[in-house]
TrEMBL record, chains A, B:
Domain Prephenate/arogenate dehydrogenase span(s) in chain numbering: 3-286
GO molecular function, one term: NAD+ binding
Protein name: Prephenate dehydrogenase
Catalytic activity, EC: 1.3.1.12
Family indicated by similarity: Belongs to the prephenate/arogenate dehydrogenase family.
Sorted UniProt keywords: Oxidoreductase
Length: 332, 332
């Protein structure tokens, strides 16, 4: 089920994916950077300096092409794909999904595209920072939208499983709304906290300990990287910001008027305990049949994930999917 | 310079202090809990079941009494101190300082009081969670207010140095304003973030990774502990909340109207880098003389700290203080 994989862009994510996938299938790729190509070639990987050459090989071998370069490079890459390999299997690993789906519709409308997003990373970047274990145990979102053909989704999910990830199926918009809350908002709160602390002057900085260090850690991420995902997820992030402003504003008013923070402390603590407890109620289920897309989306929405894929004997389009799903919600 | 130490309350902080100080001076204490007393006695420490007895011994030996129980217990403890040992040397280790100074003025006005706050802790509590190394390398605030006699400040600073802390002198109000920003606000932002994430449902929880886990970590603290310090530091915390609401609100408006987050990302990243760099410009200075209090406060305000204390030969009240102070600010 896992075709050859062609990776465009060999930074932290693309480079880690090349290493991780290479033990499971044939992998090749492209990088615009001489230095990255040199490093990857030295490490024994097949990397071309010609995008057209890499894409022609992808078309010849019915490979899965992975867009792993920064989102601002996607439009020209997609136009070349549309020229050289218009109906190729295609995915991406960017941290926003609706916006990428729009770019694909616009520039490579015939590609067999399924967006994806591995929830993995480190503070470092570049080929040399990569690791074949980067994706192990991470959630890897694989998008299923109205127009998605499950036959196109299967190789993307198979790739994520092959490198050790939990496969989370969901709609592109659902993904963007979720990551606004659990990834993009945490970055903005960290950036705000860092500034409020600095306004306290050198005394505040010298007293700051683990709560401040943890709360501001991701503010150490390069500003252009934070802007790359936050500024491409505007409506969902504005909603998340409004929820945060509402909760903090109510707490501020309560503290100033009655001196009490009972509401935010109780509700926030309960929410953190629920986060610690996530996944504890998952049990194995099997999915198959004509409405596989709906079943997969139900699994993702409920906090579950796909663990195994097998093709059904004699049915090249049919798949048997094993997943983990919250037991309290009963059968699908 | 370090007198005997009498610790009232033997939880995480009091119990760690008893262990840490015991190699440097004579240490004894009191706990209201049978189980804590039993554990401490088994570990070889002198712990009384009678508060009056412990305080009488403190008065006899001119010991430094350390209030290490929760703030709500301070008023009755202070009334007993005023009855049994009214002019005793006294400090506390609570995370708010103005409010404790008010309680002491009200209930034990003759005590030789200097408030203090070790910026140390773990997620655990109780005698058994304690460690003699808890204070090593931590900032330990020692308050100097208008009415403070440096002769009373010296043993408190000596205790903090004896257990391996950096001694940060500052006014009570300065402390409260600083910790509102670098400790109390981080707790409220973590509590808000946990709730905004939970509003994203099970999908958001299953996708949450390190930025969410780090950003909500302190929301795992028990609500009554968070309320104990936030609700006793109202004006300073309201100011910090207003700064946070302002910065987040401006970012929200900018994102919604222009799609840009350039301001918050650049300023927040620079603030985090400044935090990482704190203390890099400190050089050794020596302080002494009649205006020692002013010199010490200048050190703390500038982000410096005290490293050594020695008494001056033939002058029981005179001290020589070595400290680290930002070199760019020049001489004191």
């Amino acid at each position: 089920m896992l075709p050859p994989v062609c990776i465009l862009g060999l930074g932290l994510i693309g480079g880690s994916l090349m290493r991780a996938a290479s033990t499971k299938t044939s992998v090749f790729g492209w990088s615009r950077s001489d230095q990255t190509r040199q490093s990857a070639l030295e490490d024994g990987f097949a990397v071309s300096a010609s995008l057209e050459e890499a894409l022609a090989k992808a078309a010849d071998t019915d490979a899965l092409v992975v867009l792993a370069s920064p989102v601002p490079t996607f439009a020209p890459l997609l136009r070349t794909i549309n020229d050289v390999a218009p109906t190729v299997r295609l995915t991406d690993v960017a941290s926003v999904k609706s916006m990428v789906a729009d770019l694909v519709s616009q520039h490579a409308p015939h590609a067999r595209f399924v967006g994806s997003h591995p929830m993995a990373g480190t503070a470092h970047s570049g080929w040399r920072a990569g690791s074949p274990d980067l994706f192990r145990g991470a959630a890897w979102v694989t998008c299923i939208d109205e127009e998605t053909d499950i036959a196109d989704w299967l190789p993307v999910a198979a790739l994520a499983l092959a490198v050790g990830s939990r496969v989370v199926p969901c709609e592109s918009g659902e993904h963007d709304r979720a990551v606004a809350r659990i990834s993009h908002l945490p970055h903005l709160l960290a950036l705000a906290l860092a500034q409020v602390g600095e306004l306290g002057g050198p005394l505040a900085m010298s007293l700051a300990a683990s709560s401040f260090a943890d709360g501001t850690r991701v503010a150490g991420t390069r500003p252009e990287l934070i802007r790359a995902f936050t500024e491409t997820n505007v409506p969902a992030l504005v909603d998340a910001l409004d929820d945060a402003l509402g909760i903090i504003g109510v707490a501020r008013a309560s503290l100033a008027s009655t001196g009490s923070l009972v509401k935010i402390t109780e509700a926030g603590h309960a929410a953190r305990l629920a986060f610690d407890d996530r996944g504890s109620d998952l049990t194995a289920v099997e999915l198959t049949g004509q409405d596989l897309a709906e079943q997969l989306l139900a699994v993702g929405s409920a906090g579950g994930h796909v663990t195994h894929l097998t093709l059904k004997a004699g049915d090249p389009e049919g798949a048997l999917v094993r997943a983990l799903y919250p037991s309290l919600d009963g059968d699908l």
